[in-house]
Amino acid sequence: MIHFFRQNKPILRDTIPDNFIDIHSHLLPGIDDGAATIEDTTTLITSLEEIGFKKFITTPHIMGDVWKNTREGINEKLSATVSDLTIPQIDTRLKAAAEYMIDAEFWELFKREKLLCLKDNYVLVEISYLHPPIQLYDIIFELQVAGYQPVLAHPERYNFYHETSLGHYKKLKKAGCLFQLNMLSSTGYYGERVAKTADLLLKAGLIDFIGSDVHHARHLEYMNKKIVLKNHEYMTPIFQNNSFFKF
User: Fold this and answer.
1) Is residue 128 part of a domain?
2) How far apart are CA 236 and CA 31, in angstroms?
3) DSSP H/E element including 203
4) Pair 2, 226: CB distance under 8 Å
5) Which pLDDT tens digits describe the chain residue by residue (247 residues)?
6) Which stretches does DSSP call E strand in the chain?
7) Could you give the strand order of the β-sheet that contains 209-211, starting from the edge strand earlier in sequence?
8) Which domain CATH number covers 168?
9) How many domains does one find in the chain?
10) d(C-alpha 228, C-alpha 226), whole Å
11) What is the distance in angstroms between the CA of the first residue and the CA of the last residue of the chain?
């Protein structure tokens, strides 16, 4: 149980600004490990709206043989989902990008076709939780040569980078990556080590954006938990940074 710096900390949902633009979620039904049905999508969106979320850039996984989604398939699912939802004006408040796994297959993908971006050339990427790809920095370099700005999802969750000097993270930033924190990391949802790393990254000024990475109802429950971070006040301006992705 995480309790190491819980005293006098706010509840996560109370720190999220009104009209918040979420840039990382899994709301499209039946397309990855997020929402399974249109009813799930409705519950997730309406619950997040009650907290203060206004617009959603949902980001289905594109991940090798696990989630073989495509740009075309994601856009088709978005259109069908918007048609099925009865949420007012959702067609103006829901758009789709993708969360791309950085691997050899991804390297070939961005060379042959246009990626599904958060905005302009900003592309959400992730790496394996087991180990970083051997050619990670080569891929990041080539991605930028191809005209993209990588936004690394949940850097605090890669256990192999956890160390107090933050050297690996600084190297990734120097290589051109922007960082997107998962807001639930601030509540200890992913464990103590992840929370402590999130705290260090925030204090060091290395986090650029915040996303929910919401998949299911249990994630919603943790919106009502207290933040455990010492440096949670650094989250306030970063929440505002998400306005960059206004659409």
Assistant:
1) yes
2) 32
3) helix 192-203
4) no
5) 455 555 689 999 999 999 999 999 999 999 999 999 999 999 999 999 999 999 999 999 999 888 899 999 999 999 999 999 999 999 999 999 999 999 889 999 999 999 999 999 999 999 999 999 999 999 999 999 999 999 999 999 999 999 888 999 999 999 999 999 999 999 999 999 999 999 999 999 999 999 999 999 999 999 999 999 999 999 999 999 999 999 9
6) 20-22, 53-58, 61-62, 94-96, 99-101, 122-126, 149-153, 178-182, 209-211
7) 61-62, 99-101, 122-126, 149-153, 178-182, 209-211
8) 3.20.20.140
9) 1
10) 6
11) 40
User: Whole-model pTM?
Assistant: 0.95
User: Among all chains, which residue has been given the structure tokens 């960059």?
Assistant: 244
Residue pair 59/24 in contact by the 8 Å Cβ criterion: yes
State the Cα–Cα distance between residues 60 and 34, nearest whole angstrom.
8
**Residue 6 lies inside a defined structural domain of this protein:** no
99 residue type, one letter: E
Q: Which domain holds residue 160?
A: 12-245
